[in-house]
Amino acid sequence: MMPRCCILVLVWGITVFLSHCSQGTTDAPVDSGPWLCQPAPRCGNKIYNPSEQCCYDDAILSLEQTRRCGSNCTFWPCFELCCPESFGPQQKFLVKLKVLGMKSQCHSSPISRSCIG
């Protein structure tokens, strides 16, 4: 059996611990997911999850999906742009990087690679 002083110290420690834990609590659950007061990202009139998907030409794509760029290249539309550089018999396309947080455009984005064909 534990002596009374040990029991009192144990009760005091639990009380101090619980009082410190309760100071930072809020009404929200610990794992509440995304805050509902933030606007949800939309693609056209559909909501999508930007950690798993992106919006490309009003279509929701998974981050791993690729598309054709010219006749012999592929690109990731969630992360890159397919930009026509020249037309005619020898078409040339450039794959350019999308810049995070900006509306990326072909004329101002950094080049990733060239697609000739």
From TrEMBL:
It holds the Pfam family IGFL. Residues 1-21 form the signal peptide. One of its GO terms (cellular component) is extracellular space. It comes from the Eukaryota. One of its GO terms (molecular function) is signaling receptor binding. Keywords: Secreted, Signal. It is found in: Secreted. The keyword GTP-binding does not apply. InterPro entries: IGFL (IPR032744). The keyword Protein biosynthesis does not apply. Belongs to the IGFL family. This is IGF like family member 3. It comes from Papio anubis (Olive baboon).
